[in-house]
Amino acid sequence: MSKPTALSIGIQRGGLEIKQFMRQRESVVFTMLFPLILLAIFGSVFSNSIAEGVTFSQYFVAGMIASGLVNTGFQQLAIMIPMEREFGTLKRLRGTPMPASSYFIGKAILVTLSMLIQVFLLLAAGVAFFGVNLPTGADKWLLLVVLLVLGSACSTVLGIAFSNVPKSGRGASAVVSPVVIVLQFFSGVFFIFTDLPQWMQQVAAIFPLKWMTQGARSIFLPDSFATREVAGNWETGRTFAIITAWLVVGIIWAVRSFKWERD
């Protein structure tokens, strides 16, 4: 019998992560329905068109998909892991043969599955109730798959890395949530990005959420809307290059700083 690899252990860990998550009914309902609630609120309040053939709901769906990557990956893990560390869950896992990389893979599987379900529900509700138009070309759908996979991986490793910042599990939410909320406002999730002050745009351009949001807009908005972007085009290559760069930074940061136990 061959020795289990880090990948195979990680896949098994991912299955366990999913089972544990599904048992937390309140968390499941909130995670899956929160984007729909925001779409219902903003889609009802801002029902006007922001450009020819582009409603605010269409724009907002793109932003919520990108925001969901950060909420499900970065925010959830940066809060959950300190709690697992404080409750001794990680200390017990350290006593098993499972390497840290397998633990990371398990979290990534959970984040990716959760994100796929969120996107499906968000698009279904958007089409059914708010007149959201889905991409028509195969190239757009391929870009969406790449964005979801790459964005989920990036958000996952950054969430794991940032989980070392909160000093305790109880205070993790107070540290992480404001960071996510500020980035959402700065990155054009709730407002048209080019309508924001220039200094906000410059700050947002440092972080991956701005590029995830722009990438989602390039998929769900017509190409004519690209002229309203800062560069006058979608910058697709630059978008994925920056997200990939943050993925690499997140992996290095997570591997070097991850702690099984509290200091």
Structure description:
Helix 3 runs parallel beside helix 6, helix 3 runs antiparallel to helix 9 and helix 6 runs antiparallel to helix 9. With 263 residues, the chain is mostly helical. The chain has one domain. Strands 1-2 form a two-stranded antiparallel ribbon. The longest helix has 31 residues.
The domain count comes to 1
Question: What share of the residues does DSSP label as strand, in percent?
Answer: under 5%
Task: Name the average pLDDT.
Answer: 89
Helix content: over 70%
Terminal Cα separation, in Å? 39 Å
Features:
two-stranded antiparallel ribbon, 263 residues, 2 strands, 10 helices, mainly alpha, globular
Task: Describe the secondary structure blueprint for this structure.
Elements: H1 6-23, H2 25-45, E1 49-51, E2 54-55, H3 56-86, H4 89-94, H5 100-130, H6 138-162, H7 172-186, H8 198-204, H9 208-220, H10 236-257
Antiparallel strand pairs: 1-2
Helix pairs in contact: 1-5, 2-3, 2-5, 3-5, 3-6, 3-7, 3-9, 5-6, 6-9, 6-10, 9-10
In short:
The protein is an all-alpha fold and 263 residues long. 72% of the residues lie in helices and 2% in strands.
